[in-house]
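dude i think i finally got it to work??
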Amino acid sequence: MSLTLDKPPAAPAVRPPRSGGSRVPRMVLHRLATALLVLFCTATVAFFLVRLSGDPVKILLPPDATAAQESTLRASLGLDRPLLTQYLDYLWGICRFDFGDSLVYNQPVGEILLDRLPATVELAAAALTVTLVVAIPAGIFAAMRRGRGSDHTVMTGVLIGQSTPPFWVGILLILVFAVWLRALPASGYGTFAHLILPAVTLAIYSVAVVARLLRSSLIDVLSSDHIRTARAKGFGPLKVVLTHGMRNASLPVVTVVGLEVGNLLGGAILTERVFSWPGVGQLTVEAISNRDFPLVQATVLFFAATFVVVNLLVDLSYSFLDPRVRTSR
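look at this
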């Protein structure tokens, strides 16, 4: 009688864990599709709302113009066509990056925007630099001195900065530094001195937002277990915050900084108006006043595209700052 030994059952195949990196392209495609939808809705709303402001022919012609002259100009500008036809032509032009010609400047809108864009980017970059240089040390200092007089002083300044309208800050800075002290120019463009007051004005609100959020995030992180372990190893308070605390507190700060980049570009409208800064914001105000339909539509779409691109970059940065975000998508 022979004994036969049964073979042990084969181990079930273990499927390797799905890589989180493979989900990143799918997330990017989803974000791109959402961004296109947002831009489409923005372009549509801008097209119809700008036409509620009135007839640009009334502004382009003198008050004593005849009805025949108005009809001729309206036909030459294509404003006599059906509204749906104008809308479809407008969307087709966006697909070809052709935003039409300005009704006032008689130039392609794209060229006008490119001429004004460097001034706005320069102002936003300077304001962002001021924001990071001031807000990050202020947030760290307030978190490390939580509950003390210096913390209350910083938070009071943050509250004032977050509650003060930027245009009022700009007027106040002009009054103090340009009129009373005569240390800086009140308006203009071209030198570093012309950049200081607009950049500070534009950065006041962003400094308050970033400093307040960084303080709150650091306070939550500094009470965690790994921070207590780092302190038990003998690390100094500043090293603990900079080495161990800032990385974990950076995610919400990165989000807000990314959103503030869009706010700095969009919020430059009032600041550029106050300081006569020749950027896209000043151009937008002029276009609205002149009922320059193509120019208004292009500037609105520019600001919307800026927010969309910044938000996409912030989402992508999450995947690199925190692997848990990458694997959960």
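The two ends are 61 Å apart (CA to CA).
im so relieved honestly
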